[in-house]
Amino acid sequence: MAARSVFSPNASTDKASKETEEKTSADWPPDTGSLAVPAWTEQTIPGKDVGLLAARPIRRGERIMARTPAVMVDGAAVDALPVAAVAGLLHDAASSLPRPHRAQFFNLSTNYGADGSSKDANEAYQIFATNAFRTGIADGGPDLHSVFRDVSRINHGCQPNCAYFFDPATLAHNVYAVVDIMQGEELTVGYIDPVQTHAERKAKLHRHWGFGCTCARCAQPPHRVAESDDRVRSIRSLLETLDNYTTAAGGSETGTGPAAAELLVLLFALEGLHARMHEAEYRLALEWNGAGDGLRATQAARRCLDRGLLVRGAEQAFLSSMRALVADPTTHWSWRFRLGKNDNKEQGSACTRNENGTAADMGVSERDEV
Fold first, then answer.
1. 155: which strand partners?
2. Main-chain dihedrals φ then ψ at residue 181, nearest 5 degrees
3. Could you tell me the sign of the dihedral formed by the alpha carbons of 206, 211, 214, 219, in that order?
4. Angle of helix 99-106 relative to helix 11-20, nearest 10 degrees?
5. How many Cβ atoms sit within 10 Å of the Cβ of residue 312?
6. Which pLDDT tens digit goes with each residue over 163-213?
7. Which domains does the chain have, with CATH numbers?
């Protein structure tokens, strides 16, 4: 079936829906402290339609919400079926949701137009196209697209204060704070890869979601935008060079080594890429280990684990690599590899292919583009 609601209504469900329509505590999994002081409130944001604001101070590392999908769609069906057919299936699935969830779904923002079989079906497709996330269940599993009621309300920011990951074990989309958030501050996530210049981000956001970003990073004066763009180009160059593990000799002349990785960490911080800081710390851990400094490598690996577990969940290859480095830097594949004295070369070649921290392996996620 191409599209289905996660909740199947029946008589008891409809009755329960009416009783809990105004209650947020019925959501599952529950938010941290949801029974005491909710972390967020839904409000109209000038120029942005509806968004979520912090209802109280939120500390870095706090889970703000965890939501199961309202609707899941098989990506193969999206590719194979005409838009009108997908739109009709989406309309049927969304219409079968319990009453409060159904109202929340059809209240989500729309930016897309499509040729649906009816006005209502077309509306469901527009909501899906604007708000869906890619939510793979497992490697080699189906390519699924999911719409979440509350998570989909979080607006975009190029320096997001929140990050999300999908847990296939619980089918929940988890949203965590990656920085301390003040009461009244808008909650934001990244719809796109933020390691792009201002013009690139602007074009992609307008092309796929139909809005112009007004976040602090995009609203800077021209001279600061130019500096930000220069930092982005430096980040790209450093990532390309540091991810070349065949370079034996580290140092400024090759663009590798701990100094280059420290610069990468600094540039990530200056750009406000807090949701991606684990990527920079990963490279720094490898460079210190590649230079034979196990203590500093372990420090960076610990920071990578702290950040990575927060924004990517526990089951990630790069996190396994960092755990192995913490356990014993000298037996990790990266030990002294920049010095050309790697005693773990065979292990290193395998790990380099599978745990090298590239964009795919580090779990860089973008909001769905249907």
1. 188
2. -120, 130
3. positive
4. 70
5. 20
6. 999 998 888 999 999 999 999 999 999 999 999 999 999 999 998 888 899
7. 39-209 (2.170.270.10), 222-354 (no CATH)
